[in-house]
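Retro notes - structure team

What went well: the batch runner handled both jobs without manual restarts.
What didn't: labels got mixed up in the shared folder, which is why I'm recording both outputs here explicitly, each with its sequence directly above its tokens.

Job 1
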Amino acid sequence: MLMTQSSLFSPPIQFSPKKICNETKKIALFSHSLRENKSLSSRKKIGKTGVLYNGYSYFTSPCHPLQLDLPNCFQGTDNDDEDDDVSDDGIGIVDFFQGKNILITGATGLLGKVIVEKILRSTPVGKIYLLIKAKDKEAAFHRLTNEIIDSDLFKCLKEEHGESYEAFVREKLIPVVGDICEPNMGLDSDSADALRKDVHVVIQSAASTTLNERYDVLIEANVTAPQRVMRFAKTCKNLKLFAQISTAYVNGRREGVMLEEPLIMGDNRRKEDCDANIPRLDISDEINLALKSCSAAASDYDVTKDLKKLGLERAELFGWYNTYHLTKAMGEMALNEIRGDVPVLIIRPTVIESSFKEPVPGWIQGNRMFDPVIISYGKGQLPAFFGNPEVTMDIIPVDMVANTTIAAIAKEANKNKPQLNVYHVASSNRNPLKYTDFFEYLYEYFNSAPLVESQNISRIEYFSDFNDFSEYTRGEISRQPETNNVQEDEHGNIIRKAQNKCRARVAYAQQLCKMYEFIGFFNARFDTRNTEKLVKEMSKEEKINFEVDVMNINWRKYFQEIHIPGVKKHIINGTTRASI
């Protein structure tokens, strides 16, 4: 969808106690200690290509060394785990959601769907309005049924409500035909009036998440559309809070510890020592630039190619890794500029992966950030990785992001103050996982159970030079029996049927690692003090029912017993295209 120049400025039911479904009961309660996450740094088979890319060779504390860069008032103390100042009532999550009506955009996406399920299952919410892109009400109900009500994610709710399940969800979930990329969000007058009267909380979860999509497409979805939602929210008579789902990588190329602070309109995110003469980021100028590129191209193919290139160039100029991160940052800036006195909560998760515990361990939708890497390695098609093995990766299970969002909404909305608060939902500071450990866990799993039968899985090799990575990958894949098959046709001509497959696999591995280069050499950590405060303020019951503490994750168990089985079930054996 192309944009225009003017688009930028344009009775509760009885609540029953939470029930845990049979699937969740099967999970062992993981230890709160990280001791089982044994360091594998004794096996550092890096060879001549191993690097330490402005990182840390080893650290034993669960707190990353970069956290020492925090101001003293933000650093942890020895008595951080004491709960003396926590009331029995905690944050009051359940009390806040009692009878509240929620409007959610992006409810059919991964995180949006988990938020909907969790609110339904664990709170006495009033109604949840779901903005669904559809041609009419009948089509919206069809999407609601197929993509939400019948989803495996809602298994616990189905078990809890039995025969009354469908009646329950249809009473609670109200599909609304709309599109945030259309004027007035594509709402008819009756729907708009009903929402303005009923809604207490708006959760803006819709976005375009393709990293290097066309610049105009990402501006429309991630910058202009959220402003439409905000402008509508400001007309809601009973609005308590506006929650925006963003990404931690709006922090761009800055290094060190990224604080939970709002982005300032116009600021770039280049490294501190870079050229200070970079112009300020002007959103209107960026829209005009994209419009000019649209009109200057000779064909649709040229438009797409030119706008993808333009987005990457602008992201590089202003200090972001890709067009998606740049436009999500612009969206945050714009929302802060127009929000007025509306209380705003910005949730910035890192890389979201499958659910940790609930409602279904390992549930995932779509081929997420690290899953193509996992699948390719498990098939023996990724013998090397372009990245630093000592870099700490940052993964967060989707249910922890949903729980943090729900708990933070209750906390911030109860303040009744027109503030903007940022929550990083991340793991690298408090429960760090290095790439060398991540790939060792994958090796342990796939060495005994490869995704391709009879395929030998070797330990990954790491490269800091892309050409070396490409050469090594090409050599390893070409030596595999499947891609080294030479045949002759009836005329005696040599046909190397596997050569095309070999070239395709090498190209896929190159594309994969190049696209994710920024996280392979990422040299920043995300301050999570707001989430840590959230944990401290929660009651014991809330900590159990709304799990947000990343210290409870044992990474080996998470990948080997939860995530990889979930990927196999929901991606490889599902309908999502996994890899070549």
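Job 2
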Amino acid sequence: MHEADPTSQSNYLQIATKHITFDWTVDFDNKVITGTATHELIAKFDEVSEVIFDTSYLHIEGVKVDGDTIQDFRLGPKHEVMGSALHVPLPRTLSAGSSILVAITYRTTANGTALQFLEKEQTQGKTFPFLFSQCQPIYARDLIPVQDTPSVKLTYSASVRSVLPVLLSARRISPPSDGPAHGGKIIGKDEVVYTYDQPTPIPSYLLAIAAGNFQYRPFQVPDGKQWKSGVWSEPELMDSSFWEFSRDTARFLAAAENLVGPYRFGVYDLLVLPASFPYGGMENPCLTFVTPTLLAGDRSLTGVVIHELTHSWFGNGVTHAHASHFWLNEGWTTYVERVLLQIIHSPAHRGLSYVIGRKGLLDALAFFEDKPKYQKLVIDFDNGENPDSAYSRVPYDKGANFLLHIERTLGGLEVFLPYVKDYIATYMGHSITTETWKNHLYAYFQKNGSEQQIKALNSINWDAWLHQSGLHLPVEMEYDLTLANPANVLADRWYESRHTTDISKLDFKGSDLDSLDANQRAVFLERLESYDEPLPAGHLFHFDKLYSFSKTLSTELRFRFYILVLKSQAAMHFVQGAATWVIGADDTGVIKGRMKFCRPVFRAMFKVNPDLAISTFRQAQTQFHPIAQSLIAQDLGLDLAGLRARG
């Protein structure tokens, strides 16, 4: 039996959902979803007399058990993080293995975190409203009454009525994806029923919905593949979205199959969301959500797609049992993503990705210096503690470095990759803990390896990697620096020039960057930001005059530039530009809702000009996703509830 999930009030260890049938209506006028969720549940033990579901900010209208209405269901007291437990008494006591149907009629409310309804003005086309969900880590309970834990994996089917096209994290049954948009009906006026089926069991955090004025364009799929792939976006973004992703997505997925086994979900589509989406991507099965900041115009950021599709095996396939073991999702995905970079491109590209990730990891470890348990890979969450409070690069990059260290300790990729395939084959479709993973690792090499490899595993400081805090990795890691070196050399030249007071004598020119690609330029900026002593203000003014980072349309580079200059004597000169940029009040006109960008920029602004940081956030607060709103407010020391009340 799994250890209990500290973020769920459900009794999933006694009885668990096997399948959910959704009957939904999307109500854009009232900004709610209404309908019924019918759970087919299987008892795990004898004498089960009730089902307990997680809910949060849901209005429960009625409950039926095996088709009969019951009146004595009850909502427990509201917990700030976990919400209100819905207790449904059963008319008969269940024995182990028996099943029962529980149908819950309900509607969502405006207070939940999972759904963001956007006004038409917040979309690219500015003609129709937009809806999208974000259920990870514990917000599916805002969308449906559910046992909201990764330890429960379920299938689902759905019928959704909407006046705008609807997408779900499932395979579409009707109307066909490649047919007329909205089934040929009038978008925004005619109600259409969309039907979907997800036959592969998934955890609740992967339940997803989006509704808006979408178009679809298919990608060319390699011969012999049974899956389909394509991109959805608003019409205004379709050409740029298709160009950005059409060359690489299907070949990335095929490469992943060659590495770790068959893709099980049948469809791999991308949906380009509006700018308030708080992440780079979300690995919803069949339908990866991606941020529009990936539309760089040069395909330099499609590595995010490698990461998200790799989740099809690590996370969506083999799933962490609960938030304490989140690194099993993200650490494994980041590690395999970088192996794929080596296979698709070169070992140097794998090394460059580790270099870029290392900077984000060290920043995250420093950020949590006062909350050291969040520096650990396995986090001992208190009961009811919000796992979003620990969200950072730690599970991604500390986890990926840990796996790289194990790979090297055992003898390299040739030794490690057969184990990776066995790991996936063994636990595909299951939810596991770190202890289960470690036990399998040892068991595999006891059966298939040598005594020397077991000694190698025993030489690893498991406690330091998994359970100890600290500002650095337990082992100093070395990476292939072939691609990083040119960027580092240029950064070092700038740093060595910091004592030159006559700017006209500096030997730099705008063409310095011509030989560096976008990722190398990111390394260049990060290297400059990592020095103990910032460049003088005059140097940074000249720096920006040469390279125009304060005007670049690349969100990745502009973000790093602002982090660099806001730590320097030039901060007061650039802080207003950072403020207008992060909320889209500049020539970009696009809010930087991705938390990778907005949270560090607001934190950096706050250190320079707290009043400006707070007033800027208050000005644009409702444009950010609720998850981002909460965490930015936390970063700025604000009471979000009070802000919303004043708003």
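One thing worth noting from job 2: The longest helix spans residues 347-367.
We'll revisit the folder naming next retro.
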